[in-house]
Amino acid sequence: MISYIPEQFKVNFSDKCIKCLACVKQCSFGALSYDEEDNTIYSTDKNCVACHRCVTLCPTKAISITKNPLAYRHNNYWKPETVENIYKQAETGGILLTGSGNDQEWPSYFDRLLFDASQVTNPSIDPIREPMELRTYLGEKPSELKVTRKDGKLVISTKYKPQVKLETPIMFGAMSLGAVSLNLHRGLARASKEAGTLWNTGEGGLHEELYEFGDNTTVQVASGRYGVNHRYLNAGRVVEIKIGQGAKPGIGGHLPGEKINEDISRTRMIPKGTDALSPAPHHDIYSIEDLAQLVYALKEATHYKKLVSVKIAAVHNVAAIASGIARAGADIVTIDGFRGGTGATPTIIRNHIGIPIELAIAAVDDRLRREGIRNTVSLVASGGIRNSADVAKAIALGADAVYIGTAALLSVGCTLCQKCYTGKCAWGITTTNPELVKRLNPEIAYRRLYNLLRGWSIEIKEMIGAMGLNAIESLRGNRLKLRGVGLSDTELEILGVKPAGR
Amino acid sequence: MAFFPRSTEKQLDGCAVVGIMDTSAKRFNGDDITKAIAVMRDRSNGLGGGFAAYGIYPQHADLYAFHMIYLNTDKRYDVEEYLKKKFYIASSEKIPTRKTKQIVDSPILWRYFLAVENKPAGITEEDYIVETVMEINDKLEGVFVASSGKNMGVFKGVGYPEDLSVFYKLEEYEAYIWTSHGRFPTNTGGWWGGAHPFNILDWSVVHNGEISSYGINQRYLEAYGYKCTLMTDTEVVAYTMDLLMRKHQMPLEAACAVIAAPLWEQIDRMDEKEKDLYTKLRQTYASLLLNGPFSFIITNKDQMIGITDRIRLRPVIGARKGNRTFISTEEAAVRELEPDLDEIWIPRGGEPIVAQLKSARRRAI
Prior knowledge:
The structure holds 2 protein chains of 2 kinds. By secondary structure, chain A is α/β, with parallel strands linked by helices. In chain A, strand 2 and strand 3 form a beta hairpin. The N and C termini of chain A lie far apart (about 60 Å). Chain A is globular. In chain A, helix 8 crosses helix 10. In chain A, the strands form 8 sheets. Chain A has an 8-stranded parallel β-sheet. A 3-stranded mixed β-sheet of chain A has the order 6-22-23, covered by helices on one side. The longest helix of chain A has 25 residues. Chain A is built from 15 helices and 23 strands. Chain B is of the alpha+beta class. Chain B has a single domain, classed as 4-Layer Sandwich (Glutamine Phosphoribosylpyrophosphate, subunit 1, domain 1), CATH 3.60.20. Chain B is about 25% helix and about 30% strand. In chain B, the strands form 4 sheets. In chain B, strands 8-3-10-1-16-15-17 form a 7-stranded antiparallel β-sheet, covered by helices on one side. A 5-stranded antiparallel β-sheet of chain B has the order 11-12-13-14-18, covered by helices on one side. In chain B, strand 11 and strand 12 form a beta hairpin. The longest helix of chain B is centred in the middle third of the chain and has 15 residues. Chains A and B meet through strand 8 and strand 9 of A and helix 5 and helix 9 of B.
């Protein structure tokens, strides 16, 4: 039997088309073809993913992409996507894959929180004319500093753990080589260096060429241990143990063999063309005490000079888990919310597992403070940070810094077509196909990524200045600067935020 | 709800502050400080004022003087029972006041002179006092400890400060440090517990300004056992200084570099040793940076310190004449007392004005 899965999009050409065939050449999803005899460009609409590559590059702006108007009888419960997913699975018996973050209509708490501003009783501060500080240090801080006076000078006797300086509290989150292209890594590394922040290798190792950016790099160790060796661990400033990821809590990274070319193979230290399937758990971590052993194994391997971060997905019991991680010796706890992106994940997992980052950060920050151990770790929030206000809100709720991933990809051309897992990314971002990779110019990528960090940083300065603050640490955990709109008492209590009007 | 401490209803202030200290410990009565604060009457609105005075109880110099405000008269016996369990009460009396037209609806004002008894092992006498104050302020509704130091006291209430001076008969007290505050609260009406100065042990603070970083300062201090219950951001200043200088034994200069931290661009220009010092101070106590417009006068039995925020959003001046040091919001208040000063200056943001008792065992500053 044939199950009809309608095309999602239609590609339309206007009479402005000059048959230059740029679109045909650019389409990596096989949606466009040219028939010489008819001198006509034909579209195979079912292949179109609305990545807008052809639309963007068409010199005469002759192309438009529209939603396929094919109508189902309206049903609020059985939505077209639900119905079609059943057809697809009935055909193949497989699981459905997708890329990017959760795109469903779950509430966003960021969108229910509003900031304060100074009026009369305290002056707002103008970042154009006054100093405005975003510098942030990640790492364990002592709960007390012993300062004494010696020969007229102040002297500190407290031993201090290593710290990592960020000039802006925004870092690039983990996106592994293979899942994304080397050109993207080149752009991320350079932009981080320029902006004084960190990028994250993800679980696929660090390409030989990028070791020179070590001072701005977080190297990741995940359950597959791809690309992990002594030199790699010592290459960056932070070693991050990836336990979980917001887009797919409880399962490991999946990179299909098709994406494993020579470069990826060497960096990941696996044979060319083999699937790189990370196990769901780390098979040496079945408990918190096992995690502590890995934390200290990594600290030994890096001579206690690097920070160790532990990244977990935001799940129901996140506060207790984060407390355990802090006690297991980690310097940074990274929490990835359920909106976090990914290169490949089962749709059902992406859409239904995990909790919002806003609630997770608030709960973790509260818990660590109540236990008196908030100073022993830095808290990094990630998963669904869309703009500078989201960054500032995450910080006000208690985070020290944030990771951005999807926003970074958008800045270099991503259109959120969610086909990262196919390896066909027309923008050269989530692909290892050399023909496609070269579409992403690393020089331009670097500049756009840097611009994004710069723009957001200036906006954060404007926002905290408006609140009468001139340093980011006075916003961090300062929930009095937030008010909730349309939230229940329980949600307000978890967020530690008062309702607007009060 | 536990997550909504009452303190989040914080009050905003515009104010006048003034302090006078005689560094030779010569005591003088409340007339001068009253004259000085009265000059700045237009900076207050009659919703709060107060005075702190050091050296006023030489006859009880070794006892903790608890000044209590009973908004709820029924609670006095409960409090006294509670105090009896924890202390030896050497003396208990009504704080003398006079009836005036200006000060109305005054609560019951009482003072106790206490010697520490029944202190559990493993806790310092000071911590025992702090704990007691926190417990009374937090748990007993309508009862507030206005001050808890030795040989000192806080006299505060709702009204203009010069009127409160008459009400409390301050001309009858002699002190070597006086500070005063006139309040201009901008939201809820004034109440007796919320007036300045704020005090814990021998630390007192009068404050002009608004601490915009209050939310995080308060959460940080909570982890060290300080409960901000008096609904004003000035409280965090008192507790911050107590934490840094008493508990963490920090020299004044370092404590000032925490609350009014140098800018990173200033730190970056320092030599390596200084850079390391100031970087660590900022890293460790980032949550105690007091951000927003403020100038305040902090006093303890040996010192009077004036400081303004690091970008100087509120005024403060320092002046000296003989053994006397003055700190004031406006120069006019000081000129009223001493038209001919030895020295008068405006400090930079974050730079403290310090007066130190000459005879005091040198506290490192």
